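Hi again,

Forgot to attach this to my earlier email, sorry! This is the prediction with malonyl-coenzyme A bound. I've pasted everything inline since the attachment limit keeps bouncing my files.
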Amino acid sequence: MANHLFDLVRASATDPTKTFIETETGLKLSYGDLMSGTARYANALVTLGVKPGDRVAVQVEKSASAILLYLATVRAGAVFLPLNTAYTLAELSYFLGDAEPALVVCDPSRRDGIAEIAAKAGVPAVETLGRAMDGSLAEKAKASAEDFADVARGPGDLAAILYTSGTTGRSKGAMLSHDNLASNALTLKDYWRFTGADVLLHALPIFHTHGLFVATNTILVAGASMLFLPKFDADKVFELMPRATTMMGVPTFYVRLVQDSRLTRAATAHMRLFISGSAPLLAETHRLFREKTGLAILERYGMTETNMNTSNPYDGERIAGTVGFPLPGVALRVADPETGARLPDGEIGVIEVKGPNVFSGYWRMPEKTAAEFRKDGFFITGDLGKIDERGYVHIVGRGKDLVISGGYNVYPKEVETEIDGMPGVVESAVIGVPHPDFGEGVTAVVVAEKGVALDEAAILKALEERLAKYKLPKRVIVVEDLPRNTMGKVQKNLLRDAYKTLYAGG
Ligand code: MLC
Ligand code: AMP
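Structure tokens for the complex follow:
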């Protein structure tokens, strides 16, 4: 049966002996193992009652088995819903309640807590999958048959839902179709010249677009290989570079690499391409990297809702501080934020995109979906940018109130709501200010009730139970009041300016 996304994988898995993933423990998974392993997991999913269209929510550590589970979900016609391993039980409860998955898969160490919230959300099944190919789901997969008749899925059918936090209130599940993922993977493979000879150094998490789709899907459709690291670790990166040809990373990876004396032409001699995205790469990082290695980092721009939109060229000039050209098949315009009318090149406006890469909407939120698309089908990214005279797209800021820390999005509203609910707090404003390692550091500016002495450590401790660690403010600053404009709106730009050197010097 035709399964739009998995058929592409099948077509590139021509050599069953070829390595698909090698992990740092030396475990090797070939393309043959991929075919049989995904069949086993797909059979296990069906036995557990997962039906086409059902959501499979997955919060597991990075492993080769986790990739098998992703692809098995696609083969079974179900919808893969990966969740950040940093999410707390309080955060997970919302996702389970909203997505109503048929199955939750979690790390064995988290089973008890997750089983409790899953039961409350009415999720019928909870299974475990550990990093060492262990866990109850791994056992069920091992005991299952190694062939599977793929469930028929067309280009428009859902393959995945990825939650992105909202600027106001609740997280939204971005619904991604088989063709959103397939078309982008094929485009990136060609644009970045991936072939079966490539070996990608994979140090990103696999619960977001960057590590799961941009990296893994591109490798899959090229029939290439990945060296899988559990997380970014400069020692391991230098150890493996002589065996790799490419790496994809968030700017923090490159900030750390350029500070390392081991970064030289010799160390990167085997590498043909370094790609950066998910947050702005400083021109200074680009310059230092080039100076030390002779290689220009290729910066691209994307989003959970849209997959990848633009990229600096493979052959042409890779210009620091720009995100390059719209990818083939992607229509991009810079528009007036109010009207959506296209602005002349050189003018700053909101970036809007349209193409096969763009998602079909937010899960069960038709109004929110409608509000973020123009009538002519363009999606409003909320990023502010301009197009220069050579056609390069520049991102100059964000129209949305969002902080990006080490490539992870933090929506101030979510952190403010938690802080505002604490005893002794009148109000708070959460901002992002320059941070030498994470690009932006989440920072909370808090107003205390009269006579109350607020304690930074106590606020952080209370937040820790509610929010994933990367969302926690790196600093909490207590002030008398917040600056407001005549409309009464908090002037975050003034706060960002006041604290712009808070993290200077490390
Ligand atoms: C970890 N910490 C962070 C953090 N990551 N704090 C803020 N921001 C982050 N991104 C916390 C840790 O919990 C720890 O807290 C402390 O900071 C220091 O940890 P570390 O050991 O230095 O961090 P590390 O584990 O090395 O992680 C940093 C990182 C990682 C940058 C390598 O965050 C990472 O891999 N980020 C990639 C995110 C990503 O994949 N984004 C793609 C989204 S898709 P403590 O208290 O324990 O000391 C997307 C679309 C697109 O955006 O275009 O791609
Ligand atoms: P996410 O919702 O996690 O997918 O994050 C998407 C957001 O990351 C985009 O809307 C941009 O604000 C930002 N982003 C991604 N790539 C880049 C880049 N190369 N430069 C600047 N911002 C980027």
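The mean pLDDT is 96. The first helix runs from residue 4 to 12.

That should be everything now.

G.
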